[in-house]
Design a protein that fits this description.
about 450 residues; alpha/beta; 2 domains; eleven-stranded mixed beta sheet; globular
C-alpha cells in the first residue's frame, strides 16, 4: 500500500473527499515524514498542532458533506519569504527570525480558502538572494537523494519537501529561477506564472516587479490544481488589471509550433542536452512543428545583476549598520555592490529588460511555446563556490551565466515558464525541461506541459 505521504495532491484530495483517508491522517503522514527526513532540513518552522487542529476541523466539515474547496484537508507548505498569519516568517534572516505576520500573503490566503492546511515554512537563503541552499537561520538544506549536490535555490526547502513526501504541495517564489531551478534539481514541477497572475503584494516595487509566487508539486496536474487555487485578480496589484486575452486552444501536439532553444548562448552538459533534445523530438514525433531558435539570453546577465543588486541595496541597506554582522556575507556584498550603481545604470538595465521582452515576443509570434533546458547541468556539487567564478559544462563565469542562463531573463520579461522533469543522468540526478509561452497563457502552458509529461511517461 502506498504511504499516504507519497500520494500526490489530486489522489489525496479525492481520497479525503471520499472519506477513505482523513485529513488528520494526511497531515500526520506529512508531519511523520518531516520528522523521518529531518536530516534534509527542508523546514525552518513546522506548525504541527495548528495543522492538526485544522485537519480535525476539515474532518468534521467533510463528515457533514460541506467541503471548503478542492484542497480540503490537503497539507501544503510555504517558502519562508511569504507571509503567513500567526506563523513566523523569517525571510531566512536573523533580523526577522521572530517576526510573526498579522495576515497571510494572497497566495497563502487563497490556498487556505480552498481548504489547504499549512503545515510549515520551508527553508530559503536570506531574502532569496543567492543560488545556494543555506541561510543564517536554517543552515544548509540537503538534496533529497544526493546529499553532496545542491537541491537548488532559493525555494530550496519547498522543492525538497515535495520531492521527499513532506506535503504534496508548496508555495515557492521565483526572483531569477528560484522555483524552476530547485524543481529541476529535485525532479518535481514548478511554475513561474505570468507577472500578476498570482498577486505578490509584499514586494516594495510592484510596477517593476521581477519576483513571482508560484506552485510547486509532484506532477503537472497537481501544479495546475494549485495554480487555480491561487491565481486571480487583486485590485492592489498593478498587473493583470485588464481582461485576460483568449486562452489558446490545445488539443494535442499536432500543429503545435515549438521553438527549440538548445543553449541560449551557453554550453550545455551532454546528458542534459541529450535528454532535453529527446523531449523535443518526442513532441515532434507526436505532431509538433519544431523550429530551432537562437536567443542569447546569457547576455542579459549584467542587466539582471544590476536590477538584483540595486533592489537588495535599496530594500536591505538600512539594516546593515545595525545588523551587518548577522547577515549572510554574500548578501552584504550584493548590498555594497548595489550602492555603487547609478540611476543611469538602473535605467540602462530596464532598457535591456525591454529589449529581451521584444526578442522573446518576436520568437513567440512564430511559436506557441519555447522549450529549453532549465539548467546547463543537473544539480551541482555543494563544494562549488557559487559566489565566485565557476566552470559548468565548459562555461566559465558566474553561476547565473554558466548554470542557469535560461531562467533569470524570464523574471525580467514577465513570461510564464514551467520546469518539469525529462529524465535522469547516469548518476540518477533529475534533468529539467523548461517550457515558456506568451503572457497570460499560463493555463495553455500547463496543458502543453501535461501533454509533454504524458509523452515522456513521467
Amino acid at each position: 500500500m502506498t504511504d499516504i505521504a507519497d500520494l500526490n495532491a489530486i489522489p489525496l484530495a479525492k481520497a479525503i473527499a471520499a472519506r477513505e483517508i482523513s485529513p488528520v491522517e494526511a497531515v500526520q503522514a506529512a508531519l511523520d515524514r518531516i520528522e523521518a527526513r529531518a536530516e534534509l532540513n527542508a523546514y525552518v518552522t513546522v506548525c504541527a498542532e495548528r495543522a492538526l487542529d485544522e485537519a480535525r476541523a476539515a474532518e468534521a466539515r467533510i463528515a457533514a458533506g460541506t467541503l471548503r474547496g478542492p484542497l480540503d484537508g490537503v497539507p501544503f507548505s510555504v517558502k519562508d519569504l511569504i507571509a503567513t498569519e500567526g506563523v513566523r516568517t523569517t525571510n531566512g534572516s536573523r533580523i526577522f527570525a521572530e517576526t510573526v505576520p498579522q495576515e497571510d500573503g494572497v497566495s497563502v490566503a487563497r490556498a487556505r480558502a480552498a481548504g489547504g492546511i499549512l503545515i510549515g515554512k520551508t527553508t530559503t537563503p536570506e531574502f532569496g538572494h543567492k543560488p545556494e541552499a543555506t541561510s543564517p537561520v536554517s543552515g544548509r538544506t540537503l538534496h533529497p537523494t544526493h546529499p553532496d549536490r545542491t537541491p537548488g535555490a532559493s525555494s530550496s526547502g519547498s522543492a525538497v519537501a515535495v520531492a521527499a513526501g513532506m506535503g504534496p504541495l508548496s508555495i515557492g517564489s521565483d526572483g531569477g529561477g528560484s522555483i524552476r531551478i530547485p524543481a529541476a534539481c529535485c525532479g518535481i514541477v514548478g511554475l513561474k506564472p505570468t507577472l500578476g497572475m498570482i498577486p505578490h503584494l509584499s514586494l516594495p516595487d510592484l510596477f517593476g516587479a521581477n519576483s513571482y509566487v508560484g506552485p510547486m508539486a509532484g506532477d503537472v496536474a497537481d501544479t495546475a490544481l494549485f495554480f487555480e487555487a491561487m491565481a486571480g485578480f487583486d485590485a492592489r496589484d498593478p498587473w493583470g488589471q485588464g481582461a485576460l486575452p483568449p486562452e489558446k486552444p490545445f488539443d494535442g501536439m499536432t500543429g503545435l509550433r515549438v521553438g527549440w532553444l538548445p543553449n541560449a548562448g551557453a554550453s550545455v552538459e551532454p546528458e542534459t542536452a541529450a535528454a532535453t533534445r529527446a523531449a523535443v523530438a518526442a513532441m515532434a514525433r507526436a505532431g509538433a512543428e519544431v523550429e530551432e531558435i537562437d536567443i542569447d539570453l546569457r547576455a542579459v546577465e549584467p542587466a539582471f545583476l544590476t536590477v538584483l543588486r540595486a533592489g537588495l541595496s535599496a530594500r536591505m541597506g538600512a539594516h546593515v549598520a545595525r545588523y551587518g554582522n548577522e547577515m549572510d556575507p554574500t548578501l552584504l556584498v550584493r548590498i555594497i555592490e548595489g550602492r555603487g550603481l547609478s540611476a543611469k545604470d538602473l535605467s540602462e538595465a530596464t532598457f535591456v529588460r525591454t529589449q529581451t521582452f521584444a526578442a522573446l515576443q518576436e520568437a513567440l509570434s512564430r511559436c506557441d511555446v519555447i522549450v529549453s533546458p532549465v539548467l546547463t547541468a543537473p544539480a551541482i556539487p555543494t563544494s562549488i563556490d557559487t559566489a565566485g567564478e565557476v566552470e559548468i559544462a565548459g562555461n566559465r563565469g558566474t553561476i547565473r551565466g554558466a548554470w542557469y542562463p535560461f531562467t533569470y531573463p524570464l523574471n525580467l520579461t514577465g513570461h510564464p515558464a514551467i520546469s518539469m522533469p525529462c529524465g535522469r543522468n547516469t548518476e540518477g540526478l533529475p534533468i529539467g525541461l523548461q517550457i515558456m509561452t506568451s503572457w497570460y497563457q499560463d493555463r495553455f502552458l500547463l496543458r502543453v506541459a501535461a501533454g509533454v509529461e504524458a509523452l515522456l511517461g513521467q
